[in-house]
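Whiteboard transcription, Tuesday session. T.W. wrote the structure tokens on the left side:
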């Protein structure tokens, strides 16, 4: 018989025969694939809106008087910190509320804020708009990962999540293609600025932001699957779905974090305040070292907030804490993949400005070759990587980790050659190869995180996974490249090569993940029950 569980995972009734559950476990319906197709389109737009800043970077730098370090902050930290922080309460909401409605609201918000970016007149205004984009986009993957994990059986999850993740690379490529064309044609038609005084880069933000408002209507029509049915653990939604959302919001957003800690007692408050002081002291040292206040203040807010949330989660939901923050296998996996993201985000952002600034290519030409090559390479890599990860997983409980490790090591040589060569055709080919190799890891990492938790925890697990990709990868990788470039007198080649520091760190973490994931997955229910999960 198949267990039905409540919003916290407690068994309430035998819901259906095991034979029926087993049949469903091995099938994905036509509607499953339809939902996947729609979600791929959503993720494409997600990354069009996120990555279009790359092709616009040099124009924005000139018009707003910014440095490479500022650009790295805008692309990575301003977006990534708030994407990560709000991903936590929104991930919890995806676990307790209608996921299609949540995704509809988020899509509408990030599309609107992308359009608002087109009216920015200074770096501060653009930073504020990017924060809004980050908050809206934080709804996407927790909702989508949870939906797809219910529409597809476990044996197909790596493939399904890899196909969904292909939207990342397609959207990132399209952003360069259309961004370059819009800027060149707009500036050609309106050399002194067009309607409302907008220049090309501002028009590009408007052009990619507005269509998302129409796509949100389509997303709203998607059906919700039975939560947990694919795993034989049907899960009912809690009676008060927004209660957990507000609990997470207060646990993660300063200064409410202090109130949340105080409610748990004087000891919890003392730990929280001590953590805040330690994080602020570290940020002050980094500000002194780099001279960049906004970067390290934002990072400090992010890391302090994550500590506050994790400490609060331990008190409020011990089973979820134990399966995520208390699981070395889970942490090794997400931090190991975070090193892939560290390098991938840096290359994704800086490749276009590098080709324009160092190799002398026009926006439309580099947009075609970098955008098209990156999209093709990323699409092929993520699909192939996801399928191979599923194949390896059937033969080796830790097989998916090998694919993530490949994503860390295989791009090293192509990256070194790409950003030192004078050959433009070779640069474009290596950009395609970097996208192909680096993208292989995503489906494997995503599927591993979903397998290491219970169905009711998937949105929260996804949000935690994206903490590593954003606060480690997105918030630090592009910034490091820009900061090194600025420090060395706009030496973008040296800046990009500095991201290779991620490779040895990622290798160590993934070797540890390979050793610990099989036992962690085998004991998910046992460890959850030991922590008080009523199953």
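and on the right, the sequence the group agreed on:
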């Amino acid at each position: 018989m198949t267990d039905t569980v409540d919003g916290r995972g407690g068994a309430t009734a035998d819901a259906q025969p095991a034979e029926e559950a087993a049949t469903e476990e091995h099938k994905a319906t036509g509607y499953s694939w339809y939902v996947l197709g729609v979600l791929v389109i959503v993720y494409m737009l997600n990354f069009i809106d996120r990555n279009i800043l790359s092709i616009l970077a040099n124009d924005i730098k000139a018009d707003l008087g910014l440095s490479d370090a500022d650009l790295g902050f805008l692309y990575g930290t301003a977006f990534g910190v708030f994407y990560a922080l709000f991903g936590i309460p929104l991930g919890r909401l995806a676990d307790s509320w209608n996921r299609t409605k949540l995704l509809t609201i988020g899509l509408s918000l990030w599309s609107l804020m992308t359009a608002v970016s087109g009216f920015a007149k200074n770096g501060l205004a653009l930073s504020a708009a990017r924060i809004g984009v980050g908050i809206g986009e934080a709804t996407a993957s927790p909702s989508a990962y949870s939906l797809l994990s219910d529409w597809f059986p476990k044996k197909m999850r790596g493939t399904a999540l890899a196909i969904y993740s292909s939207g990342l690379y397609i959207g990132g490529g399209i952003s360069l293609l259309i961004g370059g064309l819009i800027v060149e044609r707009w500036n050609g038609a309106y050399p002194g600025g067009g309607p409302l005084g907008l220049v090309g880069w501002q028009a590009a933000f408007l052009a990619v932001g507005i269509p998302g408002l129409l796509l949100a209507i389509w997303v709203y029509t998607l059906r919700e699957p039975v939560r947990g049915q694919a795993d034989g653990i049907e899960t009912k939604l809690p009676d008060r779905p927004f209660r957990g959302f507000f609990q997470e919001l207060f646990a993660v957003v300063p200064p409410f974090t202090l109130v949340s800690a105080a409610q748990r007692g004087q000891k919890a408050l003392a730990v929280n305040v001590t953590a805040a002081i330690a994080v602020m002291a570290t940020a002050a040292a980094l500000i002194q070292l780099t001279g960049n206040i906004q970067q390290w203040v934002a990072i400090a807010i992010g890391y302090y907030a994550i500590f506050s949330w994790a400490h609060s989660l331990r008190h409020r939901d011990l089973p979820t804490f134990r399966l995520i923050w208390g699981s070395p296998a889970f942490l090794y996996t997400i931090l190991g993949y975070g090193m892939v993201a560290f390098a991938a985000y840096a290359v994704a952002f800086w490749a276009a400005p590098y080709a324009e600034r160092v190799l002398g290519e026009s926006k439309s030409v580099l947009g075609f070759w970098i955008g098209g090559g990156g999209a093709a390479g990323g699409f092929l890599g993520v699909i192939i990587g996801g399928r191979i990860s599923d194949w390896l997983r059937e033969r080796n409980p830790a097989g998916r980790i090998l694919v993530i490790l490949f994503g860390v090591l295989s791009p090293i040589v192509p990256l070194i050659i790409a950003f030192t060569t004078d050959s433009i055709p070779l640069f474009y080919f290596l950009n395609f190869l970097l996208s192909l190799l680096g993208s292989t890891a995503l489906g494997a990492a995503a599927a591993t995180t979903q397998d290491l938790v219970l169905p009711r925890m998937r949105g929260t697990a996804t949000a935690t996974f994206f903490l590593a990709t954003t606060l480690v990868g997105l918030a630090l990788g592009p910034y490091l490249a820009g900061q090194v470039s600025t420090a060395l007198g706009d030496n973008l080649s040296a800046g990009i090569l500095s991201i290779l520091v991620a490779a040895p760190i990622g290798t160590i973490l993934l070797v540890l993940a390979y050793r610990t994931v099989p036992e962690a997955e085998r004991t998910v229910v046992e460890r959850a029950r030991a922590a008080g999960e009523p199953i």
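Someone added at the bottom: Residues 30-64 form the longest helix (35 residues).
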